[in-house]
Design a protein that fits this description.
Blueprint (H helix, E strand, L loop, with lengths): L19 H4 L8 H11 L21 H25 L3 E8 L5 H8 L9 E4 L5 H4 L17 E5 L4 H9 L4 H20 L2 E9 L2 H13 L1 H4 L4 H8 L1 H14 L7 E5 L3 H17 L10 H4 L14
Parallel strand pairs: 1-3, 1-4, 2-3, 4-5
Helix pairs in contact: 3-12, 4-12, 6-11
Length: about 300
């Protein structure tokens, strides 16, 4: 899944005497052959969502050193792509990261954002809704944070918590669930029809790995403070959360905004796959550096200064 030597052939059409290499980004770091493998392995694409049947880790993985090197390579490429998206000022990218507690939403975001300029990407984290947020519809607090033209945003948790948590905590009816799912799908359709690419990634962690990570947090004084009663509830009721996510993931996997399910037990492999999917998505947007300001291009400033002699 990490091979990069098979690079697709591309047809180059000449236009006037412009230097195409200066105008269009270089060839794909995630070529078509690799993109197809990623899609078959991780994209829901109409498949039934039974999280126990989706892998939480793979036995055949690159070495930790190779994965770290690949993530670093992808992160630098991501910075170039996101900067180009920002400069072009046309496309919009919304990345939704979901997963059960300790699945690694923060960790994945930190790993891939390491080389990314802050102006090119921002992350929004959604915590428990405030009293004011609860007094509105569940999309009210989310909509102001979606990207505008030339912007890229990562949602750490999202409007999906407004469906998942009531299913678990409030014993809501099937009609209520269907209504919220329809509203979420309509919301994402609106974004897509308005020019936003919506990339939804679910980090799939096993019960055993989640338990171990919670134990590790509890035993580390600098991490123990992060644990809440709700985290403990998730750990004690893993199957309940998995069942809720299964309902929602399957019914909100649409053509315009499909779900990717990523094995999240191994942190390095998780980070690498998320980075591969992000870079692959951006490389397929047809991004190109914008033309320079005509006034700047015509300036005499760019001519070689004449050599002067004398004192």
């Amino acid at each position: 899944m990490t091979k990069t030597d098979n690079k697709p052939e591309t047809k180059v059409t000449k236009r006037k005497e412009t230097k195409r290499s200066e105008k269009v980004l270089p060839e794909a770091l995630v070529p078509e052959s690799q993109w197809e493998i990623l899609g078959q392995a991780c994209m829901v694409n109409g498949k039934a969502v039974r999280l126990r049947q989706w892998p939480t880790r793979y036995g055949d993985m690159p070495s930790n050193e190779d994965m770290h090197e690949r993530v670093d390579q992808l992160s630098k490429r991501l910075n170039q792509l996101l900067t180009c998206l920002y400069a072009q000022g046309q496309h919009k990218l919304l990345v939704i990261l979901q997963g059960m507690d300790t699945a690694g939403k923060d960790g994945a975001a930190r790993a891939i954002m390491g080389s990314v300029h802050p102006m090119a990407l921002r992350m929004v984290s959604f915590k428990e809704p405030s009293e004011q947020e609860n007094s509105h519809d569940f999309l009210w607090r989310v909509h102001p944070h979606v990207p505008g033209a030339g912007q890229s945003v990562i949602f750490n948790r999202s409007h999906y918590d407004g469906i998942i948590m009531p299913i678990i905590q409030d014993n809501v009816s099937a009609v209520w669930i269907e209504e919220r799912i329809r509203q979420a799908n309509d919301f994402e359709r609106l974004l897509v029809e308005s020019g936003t690419t919506v990339l939804k990634i679910f980090l799939n962690i096993s019960r055993e790995e989640q338990h171990q990570r919670m134990v590790d947090r509890w035993e580390a004084p600098d991490k123990r403070w992060k644990l809440t009663e709700k985290d403990l509830h998730c750990g004690e009721n893993y199957s309940m959360y998995a069942n809720a996510y299964e309902q929602v993931l399957e019914k909100t996997c649409t053509k315009q905004a499909p779900w990717w399910i990523i094995p999240a037990d191994h942190k390095g492999f998780r980070n690498m796959l998320v980075a591969e999917i992000l870079v692959g998505t951006l490389e397929r947007m047809g991004l190109a550096w914008p033309e320079p300001d005509p006034a700047v291009a015509k300036s005499e400033f760019w001519k070689k200064p004449s050599t002067t002699t004398g004192t």
